[in-house]
Amino acid sequence: MPYTVPTAPARSTAPSPSLRQELQARLDTLAHRHRVPGAQLALDTGSDVLTLHTGTADVTTGAPVTDDTAVPLGSLTKPYTAALVLLLADDGDLDPDEPAAAHLPELRQLPEVTIRQLLSHTSGLPTGPDSDTAAATTGARYLTALCTPGGLVFAPGTDFSYSNAGYVAAGRLVEAVTGMPWHEAVRALILEPLGTVPAFLGDSGADRPLAAGHAVNTATGRARPAGQNLAPLEAPAGALLASARDLREFGRLLADRSDALPPSVAKEMRSAESAARPSALADGWGPGLALYRQDDRVWCGHDGNAQGTSCHLRVDPAAGTVVAFTANAGGGTALWRDLAEDLARIAGVRVPAAPPTRRRAARTALPDGFGTYRNGDITYRVAPGPDGSPALSVDGDVDLPLVCYTDLSCDLLDPVTGRLEPGGRFHRDPLTGRIDRVQISGRTARRTDDG
């Protein structure tokens, strides 16, 4: 069933006088524990605002993190791109439900794919090649090669598969409609109205302090800067840098607490797509936003990971609460989940930070799920492991134990910790009864069994 956002008055309960000190202490402690050089937190309850930071922006220079330091957002760029497209729709320049091919000749082989489907990952497009491969081509050639009937992982509008290619197409759409490069359009129409000083990957002239992503040696604990390799044509999917304070301003827009953009933009983004069923990433999706159930509410937001960064945004539209977090190392994801528990304990704000939880069905070996599945250039193989239980390999990498259930859902078993992490689900064709797709970590792959 589609999700709707409940309405309720904004919270007015003031935090305790020691809230800032307690949260700052936890942020400092958790950053050290998870070996994260620097992190930021912005908490806006609708009546009170806190912005906190800790640590170092770049271990090479020793520059400190400040409230203004911009961090590579990775996929948290996508909600900004979606807001840009929907702003153009609000201005009458396009219709979200019209075929994207009406503006993009690169999609002429897929006339049934709509703009809304591109933004909500329900188009059936594969995820796209890796950034090194994408850097060697143009946006038009990239999309022409990917956007073919044979490349679809499902019929458009029938399922969910997280796809960078959909946002490459969205960026091309912006350029076709506005006549401006994506960077200029998002700067003029989204960032500047929000009061965000623009910063993009590869832009050495940004007029603000920037953070580097970091890789951390788990044996020594030493961090070193991580190079960013996003291809220029992938910019609409992941090229923005911003601070937690900037994300908080964008979150206020999503909670109808900002007049920087028309309210219709946020309303469209929060509208759940029925084809985007619960997955390992979220409980649902709208155009540009993930939807998360927490208690009796539906939050919206997105996560983003660039090379060596972890950034998160959560918004409760009913209460007006916004929580934004950035970290400049991969350990930031674990830090974020621990910090969310502290927010519940210290501030009374229960944030949906971890993957959705669900009631697990009975386990099964699911032997008819063994086979080869493909999403673009990515190959997933499900085969019996050494003990006969299912195991998953991606592009021939090390097999990971896969725990399957009778409801066709599955979990990944961490061989080191023994913990189960949400994996995804298999899909059985209703006509033939044969398993024909698998969704792993939000990406759907079509069964081929040809290798």
Task: Walk me through this protein's architecture.
It is a single chain. This protein has 451 residues and is α+β, with helices and mostly antiparallel strands. The protein is 25% helix and 25% strand. The protein contains eleven helices and 21 strands. The chain has helices at 19-33, 78-90, 115-120, 131-134, 139-146, 164-178, 182-194, 235-238, 244-254, 263-270, 332-347, and strands at residues 38-44, 49-58, 63-64, 71-72, 213-216, 223-226, 241-242, 284-286, 289-294, 297-304, 310-316, 321-327, 363-364, 371-375, 378-384, 390-394, 400-405, 409-413, 420-428, 435-440, 443-447. An eight-stranded antiparallel β-sheet has the order 3-2-1-12-11-10-9-8, with helices on both faces. It has an eight-stranded antiparallel β-barrel with strand order 14-15-16-17-18-19-20-21. The relative contact order is 0.16. Mean pLDDT is 93; it is low at 1-14.
